[in-house]
Write a structure and sequence with these properties.
Helix content is about 20%, strand content about 20%. It has about 400 residues and is an alpha/beta fold. The strands form 3 sheets. The chain has a 5-stranded antiparallel beta sheet with strand order 8-3-4-5-9. The two termini are about 35 Å apart.
Length: about 400
């Protein structure tokens, strides 16, 4: 990589030229990193529904042409001026909700909505100079949430990059950048279910399953999974779900079903779909002396009524830069397993993971079950997604 330092790199990237149109594999130029930036070689990237949502350009301001992608694993190729914590060759994960480590949010134990690096889906350029690092024949190609991992190389602010142990399999830990950390962090950091408590999880996709896993390792005795698809039952059980509720099987609202099941309501409720009706159900199924219902899809906090139960936005729940695990060099991982990956965490673990991981050290974490298939990034990626 030394020969490319300070030079423009020409590589392949999946470019979205228009909303809803198939991605096109293009030859793009990736400029060198500027001050406080890192250029990384992307080895593995995952597809998140957020990428599809903004590719469809539904409910937001369209910004094209653009390179999507935000869940990935790679290696640092070069660093810009002022970057001291990373060096070429480091194994890293990009994080779309970064941390400057200086603002009030970054110094808070209850928030990571960094004033500088919080998620901004409308910004398609780098913070340093307001320019894109991607181009094709001189035409700028916009970034996506500061990561743009559907490219062989990308440039990311150093505050949105976390160094991991090189023994961690990048093809597996790449999903720690978003889906797992959202659900797992919401449960462990904010909902904080106590041992023996009852938890309801609405929506059993990747985020919901990670939330259920967080409830399991926290010691919840009952984890009620709510989803419209009964084929998710067996998979959900592997993440600790003890009971499954399909709202379509009942004539009464699902919150009433859960209240009857639990003789008054659950202790914690985590909503992972973003659907308004589902959010209301999640709110109302918590008993009236409990703590929060968490909504992981909303864009703004919502308070429904007086009392201790509330909903709030997703990014405060994300396990990002300060709590991304540094996997132990004394442990080895098979190519098909992420077991135990959350046991090994960085120095600031206790700020963002206020649980005793020594207690959980004998547990196995089930995130390996979230992998469905692996293939080379192709022009029909999003079309294939809709067919799944």
């Amino acid at each position: 990589m030394a020969c490319t330092v300070g030079q423009v790199i020409r590589c392949k990237a999946a470019v979205a030229w228009e909303a809803g149109k198939p991605l096109v594999i293009e030859d793009v130029e990736v400029a060198p990193p500027q001050e406080m930036e890192v250029r990384m070689k992307i080895l593995f990237t995952s597809l998140c529904h957020t990428d599809v949502f903004f590719w469809d350009a539904k409910g937001q301001n369209p910004l094209f042409p653009r390179i999507f992608g935000h869940e990935a694993g790679g290696i640092v190729e070069s660093v810009g001026e002022g970057v001291t914590e990373l060096a070429p060759g480091d194994h890293v994960l990009p994080v779309f909700t970064g941390e400057c480590k200086e603002c009030a949010h970054c110094k808070s134990e209850v928030s990571n909505m960094c004033e500088l690096l919080r998620i901004n889906t409308d910004r398609g350029v780098m913070i340093h100079d307001g320019k894109s690092r991607f181009s094709i024949n001189g035409k700028p190609i916009y970034h996506f949430v500061g990561t743009s991992t559907f490219s062989e190389y990308t440039v990311v602010h150093v505050g949105c990059v976390v160094k991991i142990n090189p023994l961690a399999p990048l093809d597996k830990v790449c999903i720690l950048s978003c889906g797992i950390s959202t659900g797992f962090g919401a449960t462990v950091n904010v909902a904080k279910p106590t041992k023996g408590s009852t938890v309801a999880v609405f929506g059993l996709g990747a985020v919901g399953l990670a939330a259920a896993e967080g409830a399991r390792v926290s010691g919840a005795s009952r984890i009620i999974g709510v989803d419209l698809h009964p084929d998710k039952i067996q998979l959900a059980k592997q993440f600790g779900v003890t009971e499954f509720v399909n709202p379509k099987d009942y004539t009464k609202p699902v919150q009433e079903v859960i209240i009857e099941m639990t003789q008054g309501g659950v202790d914690r409720s985590i909503e992972c779909t973003g659907h308004t009706d589902c959010m209301i159900s999640a709110f109302e199924c918590v008993h009236d002396v409990s703590f929060p219902t968490l909504n992981l899809q909303l864009s703004a906090p919502i308070i429904y009524r007086e009392g201790p139960v509330w909903c709030s936005p997703p990014c405060r729940r994300l396990v990002t830069l300060l709590s991304m695990p540094k996997l132990s060099p004394n442990n080895h991982f098979s190519s098909s397993s992420l077991h135990n990956c959350f046991k090994f965490v960085c120095e600031l673990l206790e700020v963002w993971f206020p649980v005793d991981f020594a207690v959980h050290s004998s547990n196995e974490y089930n995130f390996a079950y979230l992998y469905t298939f692996t293939y080379r990034l192709c022009e029909h990626l999003f079309s294939s997604y809709h067919q799944c």
